[in-house]
From TrEMBL:
The keyword Metal-binding belongs to this UniProt entry's keyword annotation: no
Family designation: Belongs to the thiolase-like superfamily. HMG-CoA synthase family.
Domain Hydroxymethylglutaryl-coenzyme A synthase N-terminal intervals: 5-167
Keywords, sorted A to Z: Transferase
UniProt cross-references to Pfam families, sorted A to Z: HMG_CoA_synt_C, HMG_CoA_synt_N
Protein name: Hydroxymethylglutaryl-CoA synthase
PANTHER family: 3-HYDROXY-3-METHYLGLUTARYL COENZYME A SYNTHASE, HYDROXYMETHYLGLUTARYL-COA SYNTHASE
Positions of the Hydroxymethylglutaryl-coenzyme A synthase C-terminal domain: 175-250, 270-322
Gene3D superfamilies: 3.40.47.10
InterPro entries: HMG_CoA_synt_C_dom, HMG_CoA_synth_N, HMG_CoA_synthase_prok, Thiolase-like
Source taxonomy: Bacteria, Bacillati, Actinomycetota, Actinomycetes, Pseudonocardiales
Length: 389
């Protein structure tokens, strides 16, 4: 029998600042229930001037490296939509900040919000090939839309780090995946833009059609029946989308849905995303963190994962919760990273949103704002500078 492979550890980090949707609503004039109930969001993580996808990624992965050491990590795969360089992989900075072994391969993956799932799947292949090796998978993103646009209220930021390897302590990932790709333009970000372009209504239907496509492919290959899954972790651009996706999946499969049971189960997966906002590649694994941290004992329960990245690529797969997993959770630390964020007012948020980095190749230091362990210290000669306190 093949050695089981999957998620051995999971840890997430988010930003220094948080903007409550009450504060946003007070200035946009929207009814706050549109945010709280309509899209299911309560606050959004806002990065300080000296935070970026690298500092969040390092902060997410540091506790994993501290617990398990670096000896077996021979690959780092970082998925992001918020790339900081056209050439250099953000993971190389993370590798340096965490003092990983030089004998490591590091690469960055891109496909909108999907590349966290791609990173996990590629890591699975590497761990199956050589069960003595571990792969550090990181999904790190800052979601940014135009100010005063419909997408604004769904912004957010977070990084999830996962250690993938043989005999995992958390989730055995099953090898069968349902896949779907189609060439659509409902959310994209040309290289010259720092905010995403989006066609809101088209993005709903592209997400739902892609989910349907993955389910069809999954069942055609003899995957599990829907009722076998104890919980469903969806990509959550805003948490209400998980409910829309779940209804669509059940109707596609021709199953009746108990709304009460569905709500109770899905709410276990939305606790972090509803206060963090859209973290793109990280969002489906933030849903998993929320589920593991808030559900009762899930031992041996199969969990469904539905990743989606606009443009679009989607993947549906299952995993089983490993006996003893409760001893390896980081629930307290996850609560801390959410609660330590400092609320900011609307003007501070707008000022942070409007910041851009100078492009003149000079020496520019970023103001010290974060109290976190890692910071983006500035630019010098077009090179990014990072500090580890
Ligand atoms: N009280 C309660 N509910 C209210 C309300 C109120 N006062 N006012 C409005 N609502 C409800 C609406 O009825 C609606 O709910 P339903 O969809 O269930 O009917 C919900 O709040 C949102 O209202 P609108 O549709 O009017 O909102 P909008 O058009 O201003 O913006 C959006 C919604 C299009 C999703 C926008 O947030 C957006 O563009 N988001 C970015 C794109 C996105 O996230 N797409 C999701 C799929 S793509 C993807 O998943 C990739 C990714 O990460 C981006």
């Amino acid at each position: 029998m093949n050695t089981p492979v999957g998620i051995h550890d999971l840890s997430f980090a988010t930003t220094e600042f948080v903007l409550p949707h009450t504060e946003l609503a007070a200035h946009t004039g929207a009814d706050v229930d549109k945010y709280h109930i309509g899209i299911g969001q309560r606050s959004m993580s806002i990065p300080a001037a000296d935070e970026d996808i690298v500092t969040m990624a390092a902060a997410a992965a540091a506790p994993i490296v501290e617990r398990w050491g670096t000896d077996r990590i021979r690959t780092v795969v970082l998925g992001t939509e918020t790339s900081i360089d056209q050439s250099k992989a953000a993971g190389v900075y993370v590798h340096s900040l965490l003092n990983l072994q030089p004998s490591t391969r590091v690469v960055e993956l891109k496909q909108a919000c999907y590349s966290g799932t791609a990173a996990l799947q590629f890591a699975m292949g590497l761990a199956h090939r050589d069960p003595s090796q571990q792969v550090l998978v990181i999904a790190s993103d800052i979601s940014r839309y135009e100010l005063d646009s419909p997408g604004e209220a769904t912004q957010g930021a977070a990084a999830v780090a996962m250690l993938v390897g043989a005999n995992p302590t958390l989730i055995r990932v099953e090898p069968l995946s349902g896949l779907h790709t189609s060439d659509v333009m409902e959310f994209w970000r040309p290289n010259y833009r720092s905010t995403a372009l989006v066609a809101g209504q088209e993005s709903f239907s592209a997400y739902l059609q892609a989910l349907e496509g993955t389910w069809k492919d999954y069942t055609e290959q003899g995957g599990r029946a829907l009722h076998e899954f104890g919980a469903f972790c969806y990509h959550q651009p805003f948490t209400k989308m998980a409910f829309k996706a779940h209804r669509h999946l059940f109707s596609t499969a021709g199953h009746d849905l108990d709304e009460g049971r569905m709500s109770a189960m899905l709410r276990l997966t939305t606790a972090y995303n509803e206060v963090v906002g859209n973290s793109y590649t990280a969002s489906v694994y933030l849903a998993l963190a929320s589920l593991l941290d808030h559900a009762g004992d899930l031992t041996d329960r199969p969990i469904a994962f539905a990743g989606y990245g606009s443009g679009c690529v989607a993947e549906f797969f299952g995993g089983t919760v490993v006996p003893g997993y409760l001893d390896h959770l980081r629930t307290e630390n996850h609560r801390y990273v959410i609660e330590r964020r400092r609320p900011i007012d609307y003007d501070t948020y707008r000022a942070l949103h409007s910041r851009s980095l100078p492009e003149d190749g000079g020496h520019h230091l970023t103001p010290r704002q974060t109290t976190g362990e890692f910071r983006f210290a500035g630019l010098s000669g077009h090179k990014r500078l990072y500090e580890h306190s």
